Amino acid sequence: MTMDDDIKAACDALGALLATMTRGVAFTGAGISTECGIPDFRSPGGLWTRNRPIDYEAFRTRPDMRAEAWRRRFAMEAAFGAARPGRGHRALARLMGQGRLAGIVTQNIDGLHQASGVPPERIVELHGNTTYATCLDCGERYELGWVRARFEAAGEAAPDCPGCDGPIKSATISFGQPMPAPAMARAAELTAACDVFLAIGSSLVVWPAAGFPVQARRHGARLVIINREPTELDELAELVIRADIGDVLEAATGG
Ligand code: NAD
Ligand code: ZN
Question: Which domains occur in the chain, in start order?
Answer without folding.
Answer: 1-39+85-127+179-255 (3.40.50.1220), 40-75+128-172 (3.30.1600.10)
